[in-house]
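Minutes, project check-in
Item: structure for the 372-residue chain
Input as provided by the requester:
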Amino acid sequence: MNTLKNNKKLNWLPWLDGLRGFSILLVILSHFFKNTFPHEPLISWICPLGRAGVSLFFVISGFIITSGLLAEKIKENQISLKAFYQRRIFRIFPCAFLYLSAYWLWQFIDGRPIQIKEFLAVLILAAGIWKVTTWFTGHFWSLCVEEQFYLVMPAFLQTFGVGALRKGCLFVVMMAPLLRTALYFTIGNQLDSSIFWVLDSLAVGVFISIWYRNGHPLPRIGNGTGLLLASIVLVAGALSFEGTYGKVTVPFGGTILAAFSAYLILLGLDEKNKGLIQGLLNYRPLIQIGKCSYSLYLFQQLFLPPAEVVSAWWQRAPFNLVGIIVLSGISYLFWETPWRNLGKRLASKNNRTQLFSGKLENALIIEDKGIK
């Protein structure tokens, strides 16, 4: 078992919310263009940004949740799995149920047939594997992937220790390209919205959290490297969108997305780097968007379907954008936040210890939003 060397408090990092805001904007931009400009030639370059945004969510999620677990392990020399899952349940499920209720109500009022198995796939965390979801529940695949991962990872950390988890993450990152290649050449891209396709993104987030906590020096990565990674991400995404998976985008497309996401996190952790990217991620409006990114991620799907799926006036611009802002804001302020705070109180009471305080608690124990 590794001894964690970096015992200092990891203070609230606003740019993490800025990254979340950037992620959800990529998703919204992608879906907006699918709806508004379905025949635009540049759509093959814009729409893959949604997948890049989801991959960034995964890496942020792995980093933040692992940081919280490691901080608990440093302080208490153990992890309260019960408290972790309590926080997770109250963090994820209330908003998910609210969205599903809104979707069901619209289906009922509109006289559409309600597919029970579509809801069941989400509730049993099988969306992305059980191919019964429609556009309006299809985005739950990312939430299911995360919950599948967090059913295992914290218990693995508690049982086998930090060193084993670090080695396991490296193994996953190395094997993921082979796994994607094997899946593609046997069953095609049927599981490209499953944990088997994106596991390396979560593993990268976990790994860089352990790397930082173990006191390793942060690699100095210049903006030039970041631009190169961003260019590769854009090209790989465009090729995948056109169906030209080939020999590069299947095995390494997801790994490239994870590497770019890791670059953005490492850039923010480097206190000596005060460049343009970090400045943008600390932009207050972007931070505010990041704070409600989970509600945004859920409800944007209802308002931004592809053009051939649009059936209501409020799914067309500019009404759809207004609807997203209003409904997501209401969800975040009056539903998501109260339930999240209740989960924190229950977990703290049952665990009989307050692991974090103030802004640190808000940043590191409250898990990611989606995408979350």
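Outcome recorded: The radius of gyration is 20 Å.
No further action items on this chain.
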